[in-house]
Write a structure and sequence with these properties.
13 strands; 14 helices; Rossmann fold; alpha/beta; single chain
């Protein structure tokens, strides 16, 4: 079997793509893979490290609204389209798989014109700009959220709810040793993380709020995000508050976490749902279509999480919500039970099986 996979721009696209690739490697004895990404984004460094053949194309996303830079973006698109047509003609894939990012636009479009089967995966509740464009051209759309079906009408029959393919890889991770982080084995753990880059606004608020956890019988591990750690170093936080700049293996730490306070990116929601970790989501209000809010609300509406909007983040609201979950066993168990009902723990396998049907 021969497959072309395309995804780029962020880990939220790249790692689901790698999860799909890993499943194909597991299932197919004779497999050839070609990954098409950009020439200047993070996938150009990550993918070759996994011994996957990689081709980069020059491409840029469209600016929203009318902007002269979009003329260059359109020019890049059609040059990339021509290049990808030649690649497909030479490689002769059985299927082309797009997993998000504007690089998938010319790749999937070229495959359609070459009459090759195509599928895409959407990580969020609302389709991204590239996937909206590609919707009419693909054979199937795999979605991380069941409610995505409610957000499309004309092409709803193409959508298949599979979950996020990274779910299987999370389950294989080993549990972290809490002692490695200076944490107690006997106390409950609340993990704070707002993405690898952190959040300037939330960090500013949390410098003060963290001081008020001194009388709590649980521990806090607060991840500042890269570039913010030095702002926290000289603050005299309570002994039950631990500060880290970045956590290398977040999945392992989540396995020993009782509650996480976090953004509502697609990968984070997949991770917490798969591992059954109760969450307080603080969606980023700065993302396209406010999609993190809708990601979070999908779980909130199912009784599987709590939401706290960034503008309402203060000492009273945050601590009350944490205590509401940790100190109420019935509430905590209810959230855990609801998470278990909606978790899809074999997403990559589902996607593989659907692709085999299409081929």
């Amino acid at each position: 079997m021969k497959i072309i996979v395309s995804a780029g721009g962020s880990g939220g696209h790249i790692y689901p793509a790698l999860a799909i690739i890993d499943k194909f490697k597991e299932k197919e004895k004779k497999l050839e893979i070609l990954y098409i990404g950009t020439t200047d984004r993070m996938e150009k460094d990550i993918i070759p490290q996994h011994n996957i053949n990689y081709i980069g194309i020059r491409i840029r996303g469209l600016d929203r609204g009318i902007h002269f830079k979009n003329l260059k973006a359109i020019d890049y698109f059609f040059k990339a389209f021509k290049k990808v047509k030649k690649i497909i003609k030479e490689f002769k894939p059985d299927i082309v798989i797009g997993v998000g990012g504007y690089v998938t636009g010319p790749v999937i479009y070229a495959a359609k014109k070459m009459k090759v089967k195509t599928v895409i995966h959407e990580q969020n509740t609302f389709l991204g700009l590239s996937n909206r464009f590609l919707l009419r051209y693909v054979d199937k759309v795999f979605t991380s959220f069941e409610c995505t079906k409610d957000n499309t009408k004309k092409y709803k029959d193409k959508l298949i709810f599979t979950g996020n393919p990274t779910s299987e890889s999370y389950l294989k991770k080993k549990s972290a040793n809490k002692k490695d982080y200076g944490l107690s084995l006997k106390k409950k753990l609340v993990l704070f993380v707002m993405g690898s880059q952190g959040s300037k606004k939330i960090n500013e608020k949390m410098k003060k709020i963290l001081l008020d956890f001194k009388d709590k019988d649980y521990e806090i591990l607060y991840v500042t995000g890269k570039g913010y750690y030095n702002e926290f170093v000289n603050i005299d936080f309570p002994k039950n508050v631990k500060i880290y700049e970045f956590i290398e293996n977040m999945g392992s730490l989540l396995k020993v976490t009782d509650l996480i306070v976090t953004r509502a990116g697609a990968s984070t929601i997949c991770e917490t749902t798969t591992l059954g970790v109760p969450s307080i989501f603080i969606p980023s209000p700065y993302v396209t279509d406010n999609h993190q809010y809708y990601n979070a609300m999908d779980l909130v509406n199912k009784g599987a999480a709590i939401i706290l909007e960034e503008e309402k983040l203060n000492k009273s609201n945050l601590i009350n919500k944490i205590d509401e979950i940790l100190n109420n066993k019935n509430k905590y168990d209810e959230i855990k039970d609801n998470l278990s009902k909606i978790a899809i723990k074999d997403s990559a396998t589902k996607i593989y099986n659907e692709i085999k049907k299409i081929i």
